[in-house]
Amino acid sequence: MAFDNLTDFFEMGRHGVYVWSVYGFSTVSLALITWSTLSKRHQIQETLRKRFLRDKTI
Amino acid sequence: MSWTWFHKLGSPKWFFHWSKSLALPLFGFGCICLLFGLVWGVAFAPEDYQQGNSFRIIYIHVPAAILAQSCYLALGLSGLVFLVWQMKIAPIFIKAVAPVGAVMALMALVSGAIWGKPTWGTWWVWDARLTSVLVLFLLYMGIIALQNSLNDVTLANKAVAVISVVGLINLPIIKYSVEWWNTLHQGATFTLTEKPAMPAEMWVPLLISTIGLYCLVAGLALWRMQTEILIREHRSNWVKQEVMKDGL
Amino acid sequence: MTYLSFIKTEFLVLWRRKQDVFNALLFFIIVVVLFPLGVNPSSDFLAPAADGIIWCATVLAILMAIEGMFKEDYTDGSLEQLVISGLSLSLLMLLKTTAQWLAVLLPLLLMMPLLAEMLYLPDGSFWVLIVTLVIGTPSLFLIGSIGAALTVSLKQGAMLVMLLMLPFYLPVIIFATSAVRAAQLGLPYLGLLAMLLAVFLLSLVIAPFMTAIAIKASTN
Amino acid sequence: MQSSAFLTISDLWIERGERDLCKRLSFDVFSGDVLRILGENGAGKSSLLKVISGAISPLEGKVFYGGQEVTNDRHSLQESILYLGHSAGVKKVLTVEENLRWYCPSVSSSELHSALEALGLLSLLDSSVNTLSAGQIRRVALSRLWLSKQKLWLLDEPFSSLDAEGVGILEKRIMQHTASGGAVILTTHQDLLSLHSRDISLSL
Question: In the complex, which subunits touch A with 3 or more CB pairs below 8 angstroms?
Fold first, then answer.
């Protein structure tokens, strides 16, 4: 570990704000794109499944 | 040499089956790799003697920038593949990857700007690299906007392929012109390029997180392409079987 | 239809529609006037910025003019006739772009002495500015025609054309204004003009084909 | 078989957006033919004409012209095709004469005059198309049928917005054309009065 203790780790020699905001922003962006990808996928599958079930019963 | 594999690859059905079991492992491996690289970089890599701890932003900034460019390269190439061979999977790829590429460019831009504050003292410098990432982001937005405004699928496929190819040809010129312009305007500023040669403890985590992000983006791209294939091919029988069989 | 009758008709239509070209030029003048009024009218600010102002206004005016380039042809069905005419669609597109370019550029060049005076453009660089306009604007038209062709089927395509095309215009703007600036500083500028020329030649090779593909996709 | 038919369509399959049209359609066109394409709205009548003219590419299928396959290179076919679509391709800002000179630059003015006379447009020779009615604009587009020498005519709803007199004139012209060895493929919802046609039905 490059830091002596946790406080140092979070402060990063007064650069902590920058480093952590970058990591925070990136995590949020990646999470958002993953979430939108998976939810769209799920939604399409459900729509198609419902449509096929409806077609079958008719 | 037989070209059947090439045309097979171009068929959405074959691609769907082939990629179905691949997306999750790729994504998962990418996540783990990225996490490993980032933790190593942020907690264990030594401090940069010039920039201090702010240099740890590199573990996000550089992979995102590399991915943004690679995604555009891939878009341009698949645009070319579509215009030349009419491969059906190519426009699906473009539609699926463009938003991911835009997110990567945005991440590179934001991290670059935040990195700029402690390094240069301002949030934004018209540095050649930042400017060309900005242009790249605008190109992505253009592709997405075009894709969303054209309702006719056939037209949208062609249009997006055309603009990707033109972008691919233009990107080197844009980059060169911006770099050239920058030297005229700026003189010598700090650049991110002129770092002292990095020790291995610094670049190995960078390499790992880059590989991780590559895999993560590939997984995302496969998922998005599968979704798009389902939408486009929803009338065909194999989609029906596929959807009814299990939850995928 | 022959290439000759096509180009004749293009010029005839441009002549009948001269108000459109006139509007683009008027827009150009208004953008130029905005800078002294909105930023700073002193020659200290304007003289070094003159080339940049003129180039930015030119780019905007060209985008205005180019957006509607294929609109009327699309709605009245003549675009379809061009596609199936048996003539090379790329060549037709090149001819059409050339006609549009001439129609906008010639009046623009005529206005230049006046505008250069109004913006206090430094003496030595006027002719360099003219040369950059002559060899730089063809690239703008050629690349812009791709955007116009891609969005021809949309009712509100103007904004999209701007968004799509402006990134591609950057190199031209950069090389052109750098050449003028280099001339003002007494530095060699021929290399920059050569770069402009290279961009022009590259667009000449690629753009008509891409425009033709886009037109064919749009008309079906 | 292919030697006598100058245009052969085989196994055509057109895809338009979500729908498949004309699946497995094949037919021949012989000189002297009037081919009428029937079908409901959206059955792909216009698309079929556009595929033959080369404006859109079919998903599958082949087009032969004069015994040669021209599916991918329509150049030779397009030279002998005259296609009139829904929008007639008439420029509003030009006059009638200028419009016709655009498409047929090599005709003499006497030919031009007699064509316009046949359609009753002679007095409008130099009036701007802007001032004409829809039926008159349609007649301007149709006057190309009198002026050009193409062998195969593809006419998409040629009778729309024409009056009874105009329909009669057009049918007569089509008869002349087929009698001299040409061929016509047209789509229409009207019954043909004096023409004998072979019909092709497209079903959804």
Answer: B
* Sequence-ordered list of residues with C-beta below 8 angstroms from that of B43, at least 6 positions apart, any chain: A1, A2, A3, A9
A52 CA: distance to closest CA in chain B (Å): 7
Domain range for C186: 3-218
Q: Give the CA dihedral B66, B68, B74, B80, nearest 10 degrees.
A: -130
Q: Are B176 and B193 in contact, with CB atoms under 8 Å apart? A: no
> With the CA atoms of A17, A20, A22 and A26 taken in that order, what torsion angle do they form, in degrees rounded to the nearest 10?
-150
Q: Which residue is it, tokens 């691609």?
A: B15
Q: Are D53 and D80 in contact (CB under 8 A)?
A: no
pLDDT digits (tens, 9 = 90+) for A1-45: 667 777 777 777 777 788 889 999 999 999 999 999 999 999 998
Assign domain B23-45+52-192+201-234 one CATH number from 1.10.10, 1.20.120, 3.10.450, 1.10.3470.
1.20.120
Contact B162/C210, CB-based, under 8 Å? Answer: yes
Tell me the helix, strand and coil percentages in chain A, rounded to 5.
Answer: 85, 0, 15
Q: Please give the Cα distance from C83 to C89 (Å, whole number).
A: 6
State how many domains chain C has. 1
Interior CA angle at C145 toward C139 and C151, to 5°?
Answer: 145
**Nearest chain D residue to C9, by CA:** D102
Q: Is the Cβ pair C6, D79 closer than 8 Å? A: no
Per-residue confidence of chain B (248 residues) as pLDDT tens digits?
Answer: 455 666 666 688 888 888 888 999 999 999 999 999 998 888 887 777 677 777 888 899 999 999 999 999 999 999 999 999 888 899 999 999 999 999 999 999 999 888 888 888 888 888 888 888 999 999 999 999 999 999 888 899 999 999 999 999 998 888 888 888 876 655 444 445 555 467 777 788 889 999 999 999 999 999 999 999 998 888 888 888 888 776 54
Q: Which two structure tokens, joined as six digits, stand for A1?
A: 């570990």
Residue B168 C-beta-side C-alpha neighbours within 13 Å: 20
The predicted-structure confidence for D128-147, as pLDDT tens digits, reads as follows 888 888 888 988 988 888 88
Per-residue pLDDT, B1: 45
Q: Work out the angle at residue D47's Cα, subtended by the Cα atoms of residues D46 and D50, and round it to the nearest 5 degrees.
A: 90
Q: Interface partners of D (3+ CB pairs, < 8 Å)?
A: B, C
ipTM exceeds 0.85, yes or no: yes
Radius of gyration for the alpha carbons in chain A, expressed in angstroms and rounded: 22
| Phi-psi category of residue C186: left, alpha or beta, with phi > 0 → left and psi -120 to 50 → alpha | left
- Across the interface, do B154 and D17 touch by the CB < 8 Å criterion? yes
Element holding B102 (H helix, E strand): helix B89-120
What's the pLDDT at B61? 92
Residues from chain C contacting residue B168 (CB–CB below 8 Å): none
Contact indicator for D83, D103 with CB cutoff of 8 Å: no
Q: Which of C175, C180, C149, C148 minimizes the C-alpha distance to C162?
A: C148
* Domain definitions of chain B by residue range: 23-45+52-192+201-234
Cβ contacts (< 8 Å) between C213 and chain B: which residues? 83, 158, 162
- Residue whose structure tokens are 């890599």: B45
